[in-house]
Amino acid sequence: FSYEANDQDRESTVFLGPGWESVPAVRAELQTHTGTFVSPFRSDLAFGKVSFQPGAAQLFDWSVHYRSETDIRSFGDQTAREAAENVNNDVFGTTRRHQYTGGTWLNEASLSYQDFNWNPTPLNSSDVGFVYENVAGGLVLRTGGRDTEQDVGQQRLAFRDDVTLSNLTFGGGQHSLKVGGNVDFLEYTVKKLFEENPRYFFRER
To answer: pTM for this structure?
Structure first.
């Protein structure tokens, strides 16, 4: 069994874009969103495997792996930290394998399952977004909640079997032949909520 934790506290700086002097009505308010902020990343990785050999000709093993990540990102420059997203990434998988040796042949069979989910969500889903532009239409600052959420998942069930034949004599030499096949059953779920959270645009004239 093994486990690994990866915790990072990165940083991103938010500052007003060109032409911020042209928005005096909200200049003081926008300044409160500027500065350097922590962008945390957290990851947990785990793997386990157990093997059992009931006899000289057979081997069973079972392995499990797990991965879970959160990453608060997509802010900095002219995007305030409150408009960030939290990217959640979760993967779980397990595999069972059986190996049987019979004289001059070897059979390897495996059954595996995987569950994957990728889910970027707004850090502040209850706040609407505000986009402030200068006279020329350039971005001064983006505040409020993020506008988009996605949820993508995959479930996979797979069966594989391989047979290896050895000590085959033909063409004046010894050869080995390996044949096999696999069957996969996959199910996808995709949810993309683009512009779900409203954004209001303001331009100084």
So the answer is: 0.80
